[in-house]
Write a structure and sequence with these properties.
Structural class of chain A: mainly alpha
CATH topology of chain A: Ferritin
Structural class of chain B: alpha+beta
Organism (chain B): Halobaculum gomorrense
Largest sheet of chain A: 2 strands, antiparallel
Strand content of chain B: 15-25%
Distance between the termini of chain B: 34 Å
InterPro entries (chain B): PaaB, PaaB_sf
CATH architecture of the largest domain in chain B: Roll
Order of helices and strands of chain A: HHHHHHHHHHEEHHHH
Low-confidence stretches of chain A: 308-312
Radius of gyration of chain A: 21 Å
CATH class of chain A: Mainly Alpha
CATH superfamily of chain A: Ferritin, core subunit, four-helix bundle
Helix content of chain B: 25-40%
Protein name (chain B): Ring-1,2-phenylacetyl-CoA epoxidase subunit PaaB
Number of helices of chain B: 2
Mean pLDDT of chain A: 92
Protein name (chain A): Ring-1,2-phenylacetyl-CoA epoxidase subunit PaaA
Helix content of chain A: 55-70%
CATH class of the largest domain in chain B: Alpha Beta
CATH superfamily of the largest domain in chain B: Phenylacetic acid degradation B
Shape of chain A: globular
Strand order of the largest sheet of chain B: 2-1-3
Number of strands of chain A: 2
CATH topology of the largest domain in chain B: Ubiquitin-like (UB roll)
Shape of chain B: flat
Largest sheet of chain B: 3 strands, antiparallel
Pfam families (chain B): PaaB (PF06243)
Strand order of the largest sheet of chain A: 1-2
Mean pLDDT of chain B: 89
Number of helices of chain A: 14
Distance between the termini of chain A: 45 Å
Oligomer: heterodimer
Number of domains of chain A: 1
Number of strands of chain B: 3
Chain lengths: 312, 113
């Protein structure tokens, strides 16, 4: 299939491993799914910090379950990416380990308090879920199938995140103030989650033309603002004055781009932010600490291969 | 030799198990699968898999989903939170509610048995 045919036929769940897809499509889809898978891993590692900080056993259990889910999502997504035949799971995990693998901006900021939990679990996950729901209609079928399972589980994450926010904002005045401060720190990062408004980059155009993406970053940010600003306000959070959020002539919401720190964003995009080094490094050290588990699994797989008949 | 057959109705759908066929090799299995499981059925693609290659976990081996209370894993537990503000959250909760309902029915019927 050539690229023009792909653009003509592009639609929800239109292509799969049996189709002869052009290199350009397979590379673009791999880049997108690998980024998504990496983000699940790095989000999971970030989120596990909250288990320690969680104020009750219920919250600790729920948080542990959520981290398990995220790592499971990463596994589904690496498999979906592998079906494109560009990279193996091992190659993608190696890239993540050595700092080449890219992932969501919000997971480049180390966390160290419970007040940060709803910023990730409600706002970031809520934004991610908006995006993931649209990806059920992606043109690469294995990716869409992964999204079916991911979206099934994410409802718990977002509701649990909102439940934490609600609890904090009903706490003491000091708790409410700490939550507000934390929100102000995270709000610009959350707005940058969807990327720059005015930069519908070539990657994005191509991804939409071949049906990998069905919704632009701008549309997603807009719908996110429409849903989540009222939620924040409902619990008594004040939206910071800067970055300025405004209504466009068509009634949709937008952010004044100049109010956001794009230098930081692009440094993060290169994995070159201070927090990037910390997050990638701490994950790598934990990976190394459990290398013996992977090695013993590999050893077992090697020794068991071809003996299943004999074992019967 | 027995081959398990999985049929996909439309492009983009999951391949679902629909039955099995006797066949001496893969090519014959594909032919028989077409005749027995795809004829007059809406079909986009068929998979055949040697039955001996399938590993099964049944209720004797595992208590699926566990028997301990893991209500904290379900969206419905957080019922002081309204999911209806975002369609994708509402849909997810509806899917979880349906899964929990069918699972509860399964547990109840096992209890009867």
């Amino acid at each position: 299939m050539d690229i023009e045919a792909v653009k003509d036929q592009a639609g929800p769940r239109q292509f799969g491993p049996n189709d002869d897809m052009p290199e350009e499509y397979r590379r673009a889809a791999t880049r997108m799914i690998q980024f998504h898978a990496n983000s699940e891993v790095m989000g999971g590692y970030l989120d596990k910090e909250f288990t320690r900080h969680a104020p009750s056993l219920d919250r600790k259990l729920a948080n542990t379950a959520k981290v398990q889910d995220e790592i499971g999502h990463a596994q589904l997504l690496y498999r979906a990416a592998e079906t494109l035949g560009v990279k193996t799971r091992e190659e993608m995990l190696d890239e993540l380990k050595n700092g080449e693998g890219k992932f969501l901006n919000c997971f480049h900021y180390p966390v160290d308090s419970w007040y940060e939990a709803p910023m990730i679990d409600f706002f970031v996950d809520g934004g991610a879920m908006r995006r993931q729901a649209t990806l059920k209609s992606t043109s690469w079928t294995p990716y869409a199938h992964a999204m079916d399972k991911v979206c099934f589980e994410e409802g718990f994450h977002v509701k649990h995140g909102e439940s934490i926010l609600r609890e904090l904002m009903r706490g003491s005045k000091a708790t409410q103030e700490r939550t507000q401060e934390t929100f102000e720190e995270w709000w610009p990062r959350i707005l940058q989650f969807f990327g720059p408004t005015n930069d519908e980059s070539t990657h994005n155009d191509f991804a939409q033309e071949v049906g990998l993406k069905t919704t632009s970053n701008d549309e997603l940010r807009n719908s996110f603002l429409n849903l989540y600003i009222p939620k924040a306000e409902k619990y008594g959070l004040e939206i910071p004055e800067s970055p300025r959020v405004f209504e466009r002539d068509d009634g949709t919401m937008a952010v004044r781009e100049d109010d956001l720190d794009w230098e930081e964003f692009w440094t993060i995009a290169k994995n070159d932010y201070e927090g990037s080094h910390e997050q990638i490094g701490s994950r790598r050290r934990r990976q190394e600490a459990v290398a013996w588990v992977r090695e013993s699994l590999d050893g077992w797989e090697g020794s068991a291969a071809g003996t299943s008949q004999a074992a019967d | 030799m027995i081959w398990e057959v999985f049929r996909q109705e439309k492009p983009g759908d999951y391949h679902r198990h629909v039955g099995n066929v006797h066949a001496p090799d893969r090519e014959m299995a594909k032919l028989f699968a077409q005749i027995q499981h795809a004829r007059r059925m809406q079909t986009n693609s068929l998979w055949v898999v040697p039955q001996s290659e399938i590993g099964e976990v049944d209720p004797e081996d595992a208590a699926f989903g566990g028997r301990t209370d893991k209500s904290y894993r379900w969206a419905m537990t957080y019922n002081d939170i309204d999911a209806s503000f975002a369609k994708e959250v509402e849909d997810s909760e509806a899917e979880q509610r349906e899964a929990a309902r069918t699972r509860r029915e399964q547990l109840e019927s096992e209890g009867d048995a």
